[in-house]
Specification:
Elements lengths: L7 H21 L5 H14 L4 E6 L2 E3 L2 E3 L4 E6 L3 E6 L6 H14 L3 E6 L9 E5 L1
Parallel strand pairs: 5-6
Antiparallel strand pairs: 1-4, 2-3, 4-5, 6-7
Helix pairs in contact: 1-2
Amino acid sequence: MSFASIDQGLNLLSNEIIGLAIKVHKALGPGLLESSYKECLFYEIINNGYFAEKEKALPLVYDKIKLDIGYRLDILVENNLVIEIKSVDALSDIHTAQVLTYLKLSGNRLGLLINFNVTLLKNGIKRLVV
């Protein structure tokens, strides 16, 4: 599915969040724990007037049974944009699969996978659409 198939407002939101992530990365640089970047990005999102939830519980529904088994969205913005924060040497296929699964379970269509452990943040961002 192309980005054109995503609502223009959602594309704009994701671009603005990427800008906030770049601001955090410029201030902190690479090499910190994921939790540091998550807290700072969450602060920037809230400080810029967006509704966001951190560590949002995400249940798994299996055979009509809701299972609270510990899945948590790092940040959910405006009930529409899933953000998964990483601070790893390199993003792998399992990180992508994790975000795609979170999108499927949450019913959202757009996610950002952001690896802050890179020299230039634009090289650590993946947009994922379902």
